[in-house]
Design brief:
heterodimer, A: about 270 residues, alpha/beta, TIM Barrel, 9 helices, globular, B: mainly alpha, extended
Chain lengths: ~270, ~90
């Protein structure tokens, strides 16, 4: 079995995890920029982080035969300070020509504030200006529904935006139809406690079909499982999904979306 | 597509385990001291949807536990999410 991990925060994971991913059939990992678990004290912290994403992690992954790609942005949590966020955003263009950078992400909302929304829209404009794919984070728990609605309303104001190049991640049963009905891709995140369990993700796959849908582990420094995607594939097999339908959702679909960046090759 | 029987064979024990865990959690909260909490009240309200005759109970539970306010503040008054909307925000 081969698969793509389209959303994993490998800077937070050990080298042993790379080995486990390789042994499980992972051929490529895509890593969006995110909150480190603490607020960084200066834009220099992000400069170093962007170097880690574009220089160090691809080499670490390559030792296990895995291709590593990244998405760049300032995450929505730290974007609640617009002055700081713009300072960080000024660093991004110099990294966008790196050979493994796919696009802008994971942008979005955290506590659904006006400041977060402003910086979100500035990121979207940056992506539109450069014709880059966009990966969008939707808020946690009780904030997800409202945040998803705000994000969709905001995106609707970008007339130049190609919706096929936007994936809205961490959907659940109460947000997935809003995203798919609006023409965007949707990501289902498999987490042990929040977001989706494997069985709920498979339910949504059965209810909404495989079109414009992917699964990811979003493994990071918190309670998460880097092998969530192959474990979900096993659960699909137990629920009598065919080998082809499993490959479609864990390999072909992410490859189709990600290949909209010419840098993504497998 | 698996039958009802197939799914019950595959998942009943796991779901039974989770159901008893919820029951034990409710018992535990009831017997410990403390003030009423919005999260517990939200959970009780969400539990009522489980026995409704509708095909989208998971969606209904998630919607029940969501913030339905429409206002947007300039900055976040606090960070973090707690799983149920704070009453003041939900009523906003």
């Amino acid at each position: 079995m081969k698969y793509i991990e389209p959303h994993g925060h490998m800077v937070s994971r050990t080298t042993d995890d790379y080995e486990k991913l390789a042994l499980s059939g992972c051929e490529a990992i895509c890593e969006p920029a995110f909150w480190a678990g603490f607020d960084r004290s200066s834009a220099d912290g992000f400069y170093d982080y962007f170097r880690q994403l574009t220089e160090y992690e691809p080499k670490r992954a390559a030792k296990y035969g895995i291709k590593h790609y990244s998405w760049l942005c300032i995450n929505p949590k730290e974007a609640d300070d617009p002055g700081f966020a713009r300072e960080v955003m000024s660093l991004i263009p110099q990294f966008l020509d790196c050979p493994t950078v796919l696009g802008i992400g994971e942008i979005g909302l955290n506590k659904n504030t006006r400041n977060e929304l402003t910086i979100f829209e500035e990121h979207v404009q940056l992506a539109v200006d450069r014709d880059l794919p966009i990966l969008i984070h939707t808020p946690h728990l009780e904030d997800k529904l409202k945040g998803t609605r705000l994000i969709l309303d905001s995106l609707a104001s970008f007339s130049q935006l190609d919706r096929a190049k936007v994936i809205i991640d961490h959907v659940e049963e109460h947000t997935i139809s809003h995203v798919l009905d609006s023409g965007y891709w949707a990501g289902m995140t498999l987490y042990p406690e929040s977001k989706c369990s494997p069985n709920r993700a498979i339910d949504m796959l059965e209810l909404y079909g495989p079109e414009r849908l992917w699964m990811n582990s979003a493994c990071d420094w918190g309670h998460s499982d880097p092998l969530a995607v192959p474990k979900c594939a096993l659960e699909m097999k137990r629920r009598q999904h065919s080998a082809q339908s499993i490959e479609n959702i864990i390999y072909q679909n992410p490859r189709k979306f990600l290949s909209q960046s010419t840098r993504f090759t497998l | 597509m698996p039958s009802k029987q197939d799914l019950l064979d595959l998942q009943f024990i796991d779901v039974r385990h989770k159901l008893i865990d919820i029951a034990a959690f409710l018992d535990r909260i009831d017997r410990h001291p403390g003030e009423p909490d919005y999260r517990y009240e939200a959970l009780q309200k969400a539990l009522l949807t489980l026995l409704l005759d509708r095909p989208d109970r998971a969606r209904a539970v998630l919607e029940s536990l969501s913030d339905h306010s429409t206002g947007v503040t300039e900055r976040a008054p606090f960070q973090g999410a707690f799983g149920a909307a704070l009453p003041l925000i939900a009523d906003h």
